[in-house]
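Protocol step 4 of 6: structure prediction from sequence.
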Amino acid sequence: MHISFLIHHAYGSGETVRATFGLADALAEQHDVEIVSVLRHRDTPALDLGPKVALRPLVDLREHGRSGDRTDPAHARPAKVFPAAEPGFGQYSELTDQRIAQYLRRTEADVVVGTRPGLTVHVARQTRRGPLRVGQEPLCLAAHSRELRLALRGAYPRLDALVTATEADAGAHLRRLRLPGVRVTAVPRAVPAPRLAPADGTGRWVIAAGRLTRTKRFDVLVRAFAAVVARRPDWRLRIYGGGPEKPALRALIEELGLYNHVFLMGPAGPLESEWAKGALAVDSSGREPLGTALAEAMRCGLPVIASDCPYGPGEIVEDGSTGRLVPVGNPAALAAALLQLIGDDTARKRMGAAALASSARFDPAAVAERHAELFGELLARRRGSGLRGSLHRARGTLISGAYVTEYAARHAARAAMRGVRTA
């Protein structure tokens, strides 16, 4: 199969980029894979991408870029296809609309995957006839505004498949978006095995990571850690990530006198070296599903303390075995769980080992196999329907081998190009 991922910005280091790179690298062992980045702001990707995956940008916004995209008048006008209710709308324009449409109408891929709702709307509406149209949900339906959900309801029925991170979110899409004929399935995010030894549980660091937004509820974590410091001042908290809530969190840290105990580390990637220094990972989100950061922590052997929000951690964290689940938005409960594991070295190390074993489900090879099975099944069903139609029109005569020959030749040419990068 020729599989193409349409991504916002492949040159960054966010969770979607990390998950997409891991999945693409694994799929490229057996298939032709490309990543199409709508935007390009830098010369090379911030994260490693395997040589078998082709990378191609659509709009070059580098200051020294020679394409003239930065000054193109179309880039100063707002997008019309990308949904205005999508949080990333301000970075899209008539120019991105045009380039995405050109790509989707000309692609030779067998499968085109949109990696955020706005891009999945493009995939659903503009992909030429032939390829499978697939969407991946990076957050959860409940995290989207009512206006965005209405936009998705109008476009998503045109998809062939929608992949969510959790079963709960898959059910929410089926109930609320009315998707007859769309295959909705849950597949964990792909997270490579760390290149470092797992954490040994002896460090006195609590680690959290994610974009600093209100839905991540880092304010709850900071307040909980104030109670931790009151009893265990030898422990520290590091929060990795950037975002609009950074000034408010910094002010809260100052207000609570935690400036020597809680540190806003800024964006960082990859994070495996930072997870390995810690003893506990925390996710205080209010309504998001399992993110890549949480899976990365488990792959590094950290037990996880997570909010038991509706669309995520409860499906992977086994309370009392691989970590702890606490009520959403409850600093006292979060502090109690932290103090319990901080004070019990044996339990903390046992849960870390269990988390590491459980995290095998996130291995890119296993995740890629599930995607390949899904894509292969849908393609076989479509081609089987086409074959039956051709046989019916030919009134029982044997179908010509011309299509099979053309298909084989096309894929042989792609195989010869594997590993060629066009960025």
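Step 5 (inspection) to follow. Residues 387-423 have pLDDT under 50 and may be disordered.
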